[in-house]
Amino acid sequence: MNDQIIWIVLKRLRTPFLVIIVTFSISILGLMLIPGADNSGKVYYMSFFDAFYFVSYTASTIGFGETPYTFTYPQRMWVSASIYITVIGWFYGIGTIISLIQDETLRKAINRNSFRREILGLVEPFYIILGYNSITKSIINRVNKNEFRVVVLDRSEEKIEELILENFYPNVPAFVGEASNQKMLQIAGIHQKNCFGVISLFENDAKNTEIATICRLLNKKVDVIVKASAPQHLEYFKSIGLEHVQNPFEIISKRMYYSITAPHIWLLEMWIYGHALNLRNRDLLPHGKYIICGYGRMGIAIEEGLKKAGIDYIFFDINSEEYKQRKDTTIFGDEEDVTKLLELGIMDSECIIAATKDDLLNLTILNKAKVLNPDIYTIARENSLDGINIFQAAKIDRIYILEQILADTTYNYLAQPLTEIFIQEIRKKDEEWAVVIVNMLHTITGANPDYFELQITQENAYALSLELSKETKVTLSNLRRSREDRNKLLHIVYLLLKRGEEIYLMPESHMEIQLEDQLLIVCDDEGRNDFEYIINNIHELNYVLTSKEKSYNFFQKKD
Amino acid sequence: MSMDKIVSGFFFILAMTLNFGFFIGDITVIEQHSAFELFAAIIINIIATILKLGDKTQLGAVLLATSLVADIQLIASATVWAFAEYVLGGLNVESTTAIVSLSGGALLANVVSVILFVGDTIKSKR
Fold first, then answer.
1. In which domain, by residue range, is B60 found?
2. Which residues does chain B have within 8 Å of residue A21's beta carbon, measured at their own beta carbons?
3. How near does any CA of chain A get to the CA of B81, in Å?
4. Rounded to 5 degrees, what angle do the CA atoms A249, A255, A256 make?
5. Model pTM?
6. What is the pLDDT of residues A393-428, one digit of tens each?
7. In CATH, what is the architecture of A249-416?
8. In Å, what is the CA distance from A256 to each residue of A45, A287, A428?
9. CB contact, 8 Å: A47 with chain B?
């Protein structure tokens, strides 16, 4: 790749170089052969150096005048001819170099080169994101800060420019390139050891399949995170060994189910994704009859959830594209539509879900439904993040934003893998258990707790790992003491402990911590800070464990 | 037979022969070495170098390298000459030897270049 630039330059510069050399040598030779005269009128022949000096400054239009002696007429005649040929040759050469700098091919080659160098220079682990859009942008925004670096490939130049204008810090190397192009993937660093994975969340399942296959073939170790919604693609992904397949519809289906049958489990899951940790009235789904508008992938997913939860539902088969063609509008709600809604029993239904592919159609369906039945609970599917404000303004009770769900789950997978395990584990529990947990979190860590993940390593927990390597026994409850007064409790709750492949949900407080344990911890505002202080600072840890404040003397031998 | 091959072959060999012409003679006597011949050798060598630019093959790269060596040696030779003449105030045996032996080095590079070129020609089946 590097050579390519040199070759492009050299090939283009061949002719201008030749022109310059030939014109220069002709004029130099001429000047040397033509006799001149020195100040006293004696015949003088210019030396090579004289001639070279004169031609050099004349051709480049600097023009110092006639040296070493004033020229004779034959010399001047030769010089006037050679000025034309050398200056033209010189300008031609310069012009070629300038046009070369502006050359599109060359610029692309240079850009690609610097992109490649930048990626080779990455030392942190990174992910390759294919396609730049609002989903991946929100992933980049969150991931790029601390955990990983990101590399972006997108087919469209506009998108890449948009990304560059975004000024991410640390810088996100980005380049124009087809995602399914092997060469581009290689340049993007798929072979590199610190490339952790490839993220492909295209709308088109077939494209994701193609990309996943290529990535797998290029590098077996790399993790491929893809989106898929059709069952045959899901199966294929499993067969090529992809662990993480993003299916937003499946997530929605599960959320519907838990939201109806076990709202507190739903709450815990949503809290992981940023929802406040309390159930408001509008978070509770009704148990009456549901109307689902649109029998597409989303409609089927919702059906699955409702069926499992034992809810009565009816489909309103409306296809956004067909509707648009037939009525030439995306505004729902003429007389025919109203009759249809009434026929479906809008008046005695408790919930309506607008799940078509068209955002505007979804909005207008729900508006009309609200007009007909003001008490009805409304759920909308929102396809892209761009229109989020309109949906919020429309006072819809619940919105499923596909892009948001994809971004959230992908981010959690990348940066907080324990949260995903946590969600899977709590789904195995029942509602009563979840109520207890939510109450416990409220009493210990306040109304709106935060959470963080931590692995016990020397880097993250210096003091603790030091202590553990001395084979001191440290239990979870040992660490739950305040560093101000060890008789007081720190405001943290251990949600999950992962040791190798074993998972402990709500681990017992007398469990001993081992090196390499991964913890998911809930905390209040100060809890995280305090906890990290304790596990990193030997003095704090010592106090918390033994209540003694050791004083260190540098001249004393350490024990 | 292609025009490209004729032109480049012509310049490669001319570069070597001119170089040889300048080099031959008593190494300490500047009168036996023509300044014009050195000038011609430099120009032809540079032209030969430019003709070798942009050849992506392995052989092309080696040819270019030998040519660059010859250029540098010949230009150094001319520079020594100009420096001795104008700055040191005249040629002596030492500078003359330097000028001629530098061109001798260039000659070696040129010979290597021509051998490679001829070898490539013999190897090609057409």
1. 3-123
2. 43, 46-47, 50
3. 9
4. 90
5. 0.69
6. 778 888 888 888 888 888 888 888 889 889 988 988
7. 3-Layer(aba) Sandwich (3.40)
8. 99, 12, 16
9. yes
